[in-house]
Amino acid sequence: MTYDVRPLDAAGRDRWDAFVQACPEATFFHRAGWHRVIEDSFGQKCHFLAAERDGEIRGVLPLVHVRSPIFGNRLVATGFCVGGAPAVTEDGAMAALDARAVALMDELKAEYLEYRDPARPHPDWPKKEGLYATFDRPIEADEDENLKQIPRKQRAVVRKALKSDLVDEVNADIDQFYDLYSLSMRNLGTPVFGRRFIANLVDEFGDDCDIVTVSQGGRPLSSVLNFYFKDRVMPYYTGAAPEARRTGAADLQYWRVMRRAVERGYTVFDFGRSKEGTGPYSFKKNWGFEPRPVVLEFRMRSGGPLPDVNPNNPKYKLMIDVWRRLPLPVANAIGPMIGRQVG
Questions:
Q1: Which of 78, 251, 267, 331, by CA, is between 20 and 30 Å from 4?
Q2: In this predicted model, what pLDDT tens digit does every residue of 280-293 receive, in sequence order?
Q3: What domain count does the chain have?
Q4: 292: helix, coil or strand?
Q5: What is the DSSP letter of 294?
Q6: At what angle do helices 174-188 and 195-205 cross, to 10 degrees?
Q7: pTM reported for the whole predicted model
């Protein structure tokens, strides 16, 4: 069978998204909207490819050409996201997309091609496992049963937060969210993405994206930006003041996201990806979620060792330690310039 591999264009967005909505392998990170969001927010070039046969899309591959003097020249699906490898309905479409991706890697002189959490891993491609895990599970529709899904000790924290003076709301206050998000990123030693990126997400994904913020005495303590796709809610970017854990604000935040998702008809809570051995990884396990290892697979253009662009790499330790001590305004000013190179 012959496939025609075409780049995404403005006229093809609806067809692309219709395929993504119907394809069991496709995730929120395959949506066409990421093309505009990434190019406008980070200035990195997107190459979103669709494999067609008999006039119908049979597979999509959202590639981002991430160029950085610090982290190298890479072709990533989907850059700046945690997923986005080929999503297909037939093997031939997968082979056609792979072939075009490898050719594009050569044309762009990218050092490697990276697929994140692929639905169909290649048995002969080098892989990394054990660095990240992802967490999800069905949400019980009944509130009491939902509470019972949470282990006893963590459930007590949620119950206490529910009885406190904490107040939660759904809003589109990007500035309020960004203040907490950028604080958390600085404290983790990670360059923050720019405010423009958050604004683009809210604008592009509309009702499929919202922000939930928990406050006490009028002061925001914890805030999370959520994505909604197919059957699942995904709390994706989050930020919190130091008091959030002590007051239970972060716990109430996730509980409210969970219950509002049930009201809207969503049935799966996708807690997302975390690095093994970190605080967020332990926090999700404390909520009763079981980790699933995430696979990263690579196609190297010229051989050599696998890339190691992650915070656990010892060569980034000094940078992380220094970043944690930066004044927040300084971190927020220079962070987006580095963040756009991370991919």
A1: 78
A2: 899 999 999 999 99
A3: 2
A4: strand
A5: P
A6: 130
A7: 0.94
β-pair partners for 269: 137, 233
Both structure tokens of 263: 């009201």
Q: Per residue in 185-209, pLDDT tens?
A: 999 999 999 999 999 999 999 999 9
| CATH code of the domain in which 64 resides | 3.40.630.30
Residue by residue, DSSP assigns 47-113 as EEEEEEETTEEEEEEEEEEEEETTTEEEEEETTTSS----EESSHHHHHHHHHHHHHHHHHHT-SEE
In the structure encoding, which two tokens stand for residue 279, read together? 């605080």
C-beta separation of 105 from 112 below 8 A: yes
| Nearest Cα residue to 292 out of 28, 82, 20, 84 | 82
Q: Residue 130: phi, psi to the nearest 5?
A: 95, -10
Tokens 């997968």 locate to 94
User: Is 333 part of a structural domain of the chain?
Assistant: no
At 275 the three-state DSSP class reads strand
Instruction: Note down the domain range covering 204.
Output: 134-293
The span from the CA of 283 to the CA of 218, in Å, is 26
Reading phi first (left if > 0) and then psi (alpha if -120 to 50, else beta), residue 227 is in beta
> Which range (56-65, 125-134, 140-149) has the least confidence?
125-134
The DSSP result for 171-236, as a single string, is E--HHHHHHHHHHHHHHHT-PPPPHHHHHHHHHHHGGGEEEEEEEETTEEEEEEEEEEETTEEEEE
Q: Which of 38-47, 62-71, 218-227, 296-305 has the lowest mean pLDDT?
A: 296-305
pLDDT, mean of residues 231-237: 97
Q: Collect all residues with Cβ–Cβ distance below 8 Å to 290 and sequence separation of at least 6.
A: 135, 137
Buried b / exposed e along 190-219 (16+ C-beta atoms within 10 A): bbbbbbebbbbbbebbeeebbbbbbbbeee
Instruction: Say if residue 224 is in the same domain as residue 116.
Output: no
How far is residue 318 CA from its own chain's centroid? 25
